[in-house]
Design goal:
The protein is α/β, with parallel strands linked by helices. It folds into three domains: about 5-75 and about 220-300 and about 430-495, FAD/NAD(P)-binding domain (3-Layer(bba) Sandwich); about 100-210, no CATH class; about 310-425. It has 15 helices and 16 strands. The longest helix is centred in the N-terminal third of the chain and has 26 residues, at about 100-125. The two termini are about 25 Å apart. Bound molecules: flavin-adenine dinucleotide.
Length: about 500
Amino acid sequence: MSPDAIVIGAGHNGLVAAARLGLAGRRVLVLEAQDAPGGLLGEAGGMRVAAMPTGLDPEVARALALHRHGLRPGRPLATIALGGNAPVRIEGGSVRGIDAAAAAAFADLHRRLGRHAAALAPMMAKVPPRLRDGGWGDLMTLARMGLGVRMLGRAQMRELLRVLLSNVWDLLDDEIGDGPLSGALAMEATLGGAMGPRSPGTVLPLLYRFAGRPRTMPEGGAGAIVAALVKAVEATGGQVRTGARVAGVLTGDDRVAGVRLEGGEEIRAPLVVSNAHPRATLLDLLGVRHLDAEDARRARLMATEGMVARLDLTLGAAPGVPGAGAPDLCDRMVIAPDMKMLETAFNAAKYKGIPERPGLECHWDAGASRLAVSAQFVPCGVKGGWSAETRDRLLSNVVSAIDDALPGTAAKVTGVTLATPADIEARFALPGGHWHHGEFRVDQMLMLRPFAGAAQYRMPVAGLYLCGAGAHPGGDVTGLPGWNAAGAALKDGRRA
Ligand SMILES: Cc1cc2nc3c(=O)[nH]c(=O)nc-3n(C[C@H](O)[C@H](O)[C@H](O)COP(=O)(O)OP(=O)(O)OC[C@H]3O[C@@H](n4cnc5c(N)ncnc54)[C@H](O)[C@@H]3O)c2cc1C
């Protein structure tokens, strides 16, 4: 029997979309190219690319009853900023390891940014409104968004608008000065993007990560999220088929009609939801003949240069945080001693070089004896191309930065797996290997995400929707793009 809906890709957003469609009574088939579900969060190719999934939206988790499928909430995350004179431990608005005046300044900044993030949160979680030809629903959404900001009061509203247009360097340097604390916050603002701390628009990503309430690492980590989502899809009668790469989207009568797999098999369905990158969805799977010239140009030109490499270091013994011993599953270690160092790394990456000191986010998984490292400011298209020499240089720069911050770690390394952005691009059909499936910046956000004319999850052919991180609100493991895309498809289905 043909399915009612096909989801291309079993990334976490594809699985969320499939489960929501299934709960609404649709028979869903998820087709995944890799041999395992989960996308960047899964274990395809021997590495879990997204090592620290700490932002799953609690309302999405509740609506899909993920607790019934084995997902248990974990403890809130702590950030340990390394590379300074002593480790600085950040938990929410409280910080240890710096003097009392600096800690008070940080607590005050954290409180104000938290208020700004809360005012923006409805914008980030909901379907962005259509501005030109929207209806009452769009106007109401817009009004609610405006109200949240208005409720801040005149002074805070003015302050929010000021910082939104500025850069994270100016904000942090002004409020708390440069050092490991600012380095860790600037890392949060820039991680996954192709912008340095001094680039305009970098306060917004910081608020995006603040807006998602306190972040927690679920019990069992990434694997537990993927397993619960697959069970949620199957509980509604849906099926997840791995090793099934979609080669094209079929159309007929000016709307979607199904998909064609590599190898030629055709599967018919009136609804197709794509978890693939926006450019791949439109240019490779749908085909340029279905697009007007402007949409094709925008899909081709969208900014999607990834700048994060992933390394898994297998260690013979746990790394030791100076003065604190072994980190635990909820500790996120950031090695970015100051913002200047991050900006220097970005400058190298901008011109396609490998930075001597990339910004590092590390996570120790004691069960697997593995230190998962995300190295920020490693360009996808490195000058001269990726080779054994450039890979070795990157590895040596990363290991020596880790050894400086966590002394003795280099001597414990017994194995290494490295995935450059170019490796991630190739493995996941993900242009640029980009963390957010497309840069998270002002001209590719909200009603402009992935680009003007292709927003609100609806693609230019009726019945085709985009549900991955390239859609609003973007990447990280939140489930929101998948949830909203399925909602848009169901709404259109009721109207038809
Ligand atoms: C290096 C790196 C590190 C990251 N670390 C973190 C982290 O620690 N924490 C965090 O929250 N986020 C992290 N992220 C971001 C996060 O991984 C992504 O934002 C998120 O996984 C996107 O989920 P998704 O479901 O939209 O897409 P994906 O996870 O990319 O899944 C898309 C799926 O579609 C499949 N697909 C594509 N084309 C086809 C086709 N033609 N046919 C069939 N299947 C297809 C792919 O194989 C893939 O499985 C990281 C990203 C990167 C690049």
